[in-house]
Design goal:
Layout: H1 4-12, E1 23-28, E2 31-36, E3 54-59, E4 77-83, E5 100-105, H2 107-114, E6 125-132, H3 135-148, H4 153-172, H5 183-197, H6 205-211, H7 216-227, H8 231-249, H9 254-260, H10 266-277, H11 281-286
Antiparallel strand pairs: 1-2, 2-5, 3-4, 3-5, 4-6
Helix pairs in contact: 3-4, 6-7, 9-10
GO molecular function: DNA-binding transcription factor activity; sequence-specific DNA binding
InterPro entries: Homeodomain-like_sf (IPR009057), HTH_AraC (IPR018060), HTH_AraC-typ_CS (IPR018062), Tscrpt_reg_AraC-type_HTH (IPR020449)
Organism: Clostridium cylindrosporum DSM 605
Length: 289
């Protein structure tokens, strides 16, 4: 049985764990989900790199595509760009890393499912298309199942990954389903993605409410109904999770990490970290020696 990282190599190529130290990944045989969380994927910014698998990049900021977007993106949709195996490309390294989700699908798996729709060859060179934001529900289910280690986990992961693959194929072939995404859910998803992208900056309730054209009280109510927690508690949890990854990497001081993750002081960071994890940042680092 292959270990998890061999599954990563089979999908991504000759990548190292160090290349992915700022990336969360969930990879099984033939299928994987990768998300930069606190910095660039160092393999993604390697010039003219390739992958042995098909890759589909789901963007939360449509202006950040590797190539310019040439499709009309409606409310309730994500922009996706598709890349075929062995096609050279690289992500441009800017001042800020771009948050996205990259889905890698082995050549055999993707082409087998694609044959249900077309006998033509699936060939993508940053082909742009859209998918319903409902795909995020399946991605979240996959990640939750991946981390749960419950009975029949393997069967469930195969099932969920197959749904995601078919959603992507139908998107690239413009075979849209008729299901509607609730406006409420779409707006909260937009805010969650904004928090993940800009967690290091000053974020206020008034700013978040304005992003979805709601009053502050209305926004707080809808957010809590959808996610069962307040917006600021959710944001602090995001910042703590980002900080954990940086603390484990040991690449920066605790003060640098605190400021980089959006806390205005080391004392504020330490207080929030201890409240959320029942341990101090220093104690947390020491558990990973």
């Amino acid at each position: 049985m292959k270990n998890d990282f061999q599954n990563v190599i089979d999908l991504v190529g000759l990548v190292s764990k160090d290349n992915l130290r700022y990336v969360d990944y969930y990879a099984e045989a033939g299928f994987g989900i990768f998300m930069p969380t606190v910095g660039f994927c160092e393999y993604a910014i390697t010039k003219a790199h390739t992958h042995p698998a098909y890759s589909f990049i789901i963007y939360f900021d449509y202006s950040k595509g590797i190539v310019p977007c040439n499709v009309d993106i409606k409310e309730g949709e994500y922009l996706v760009q598709a890349i075929s195996p062995d096609f050279p490309h690289e992500e441009e390294e800017g001042d800020r890393f771009n948050r996205y989700i990259a889905i890698f699908i082995s050549k055999d798996f993707y082409e087998k499912e694609y044959k249900h729709y077309s006998n033509s060859r699936a060939m993508y060179m940053f082909n742009s298309f859209t998918v319903s934001k409902n795909i995020m529900l399946h991605i979240e289910k996959y990640i939750n199942e991946y981390e749960a280690f419950t009975p029949a986990r393997g069967d469930m992961l195969v099932h969920i990954s197959s749904i995601i693959v078919h959603e992507l194929i139908r998107g690239v072939l413009k075979l849209k389903s008729k299901d509607e995404v609730s406006i409420k859910r779409v707006e909260i998803e937009k805010i969650v993605n904004y928090m993940h992208q800009y967690f290091c900056e000053k974020i206020t309730i008034s700013k978040l409410a304005a992003l979805c054209n709601m009053s502050e009280s209305g926004f707080n109510k809808v957010f809590k109904e959808e996610l069962l927690t307040s917006p600021m508690d959710y944001l602090i949890n995001i910042r703590i999770e980002k900080a954990k990854k940086l603390l484990r990497s040991r690449s920066k001081s605790i003060t640098e990490i605190a400021l980089e993750c959006g806390f205005n002081s080391l004392s504020h960071f330490s207080s929030c970290f201890t409240k959320n994890t029942s341990t101090t940042p220093r104690e947390y680092i020491n558990t990973y020696k």
